[in-house]
Structures are given as structure tokens and as C-alpha cells.
Amino acid sequence: MSIGVPNLGNIKPPTDPTNTSTGRRPSQVHGHAEYAKGVVNETIGQMANSPSWQASGIEDKAAGIAEMRAGKEMVDKDPRENYQTRDRQRLKTEGKSQNVLGKTVGCQGMVKRGGEKVEAGERLGKS
């Protein structure tokens, strides 16, 4: 079941590739988790008739979407040709995790990218 991503207007991914508040790079996986947290918080707020929980959920969802977009932008800048310079086992593990999470949350882009990483890791083992 896909609920889609709401149009949140002017929310744009940060231009700085490192999130200054956490010191880490934006991640599509973390963005999906943040979005899911927002959905849960907003739902609890609606059920409990709590405007603060609803607002918190909306903010979390917006932050998750912004991080997903920033993570995708960074991934798109990292050409798939660079896979050959990465550690084979780490690439395969990352790909499997991304594939499973993509299937879990219903994100076909994550499933596809995860599969590409697994295949690239397997090719590296044959070289």
C-alpha cells in the first residue's frame, strides 16, 4: 500500500551534503524512517486529538522527505561506475539491506538501487 508523498511546497533538500546538526550525510534510508515516524506521530495525534503530536508528525514527515530528496541527489552524483572502487562485501551488504528496506516500505527506487549494488558486488568478486 503506497500512500504517496504529499506536496509540501517549497521544501528543498539542503545544499550542504552534510547535515550540520548531526554531522552525517543525508540518507534515503534514514529519510524513509523519519517519514514513517512522522506518519505514526501524526496518526497518534489524530487519534488522541493532540495538535502538538499532529504538528510533530507533519514536521517529521517534511524532514524525512527533504532528507530523502537530499540523499537521492547525492546518490545521483555518485555514478554507478564508482561501485568498482568500493569494498565488494560492503557493497553487497548495503545493497541487500537497501533492497529489503525498499520492499518493506514500498519504495521501488530503493529496491532497484539495492539490486544494482548486490549485482555490482558480485561482479567485483568475479574480477
Overall pLDDT metric: 79
Separation of termini?
40 Å
Largest sheet: none
Query: Shape from CA axes?
Result: elongated
Which value, in Å, is the CA radius of gyration? 17 Å
What is the overall number of helices? 4
Specify the structural class.
mainly alpha
> What share of the residues lie within helices?
55-70%
What oligomeric assembly is this protein in?
single chain
User: Poorly predicted ranges (pLDDT <50, ≥5 residues)?
Assistant: 1-5, 7-18
In total, the number of strands is 0
Proportion of residues in β-strands: under 5%
Give the SSE string: HHHH
At a glance:
The chain is mainly α and 127 residues long. It has helices at 28-47, 51-77, 88-105, 108-126.
Describe the structure.
The chain is mainly alpha-helical and 127 residues long. The chain has helices at residues 28-47, 51-77, 88-105, 108-126. The protein contains 4 helices and no strands. Helix 1 (28-47) packs antiparallel against helix 2 and helix 3 (88-105) runs antiparallel to helix 4 (108-126). The longest helix is centred in the middle third of the chain and has 27 residues, at 51-77.
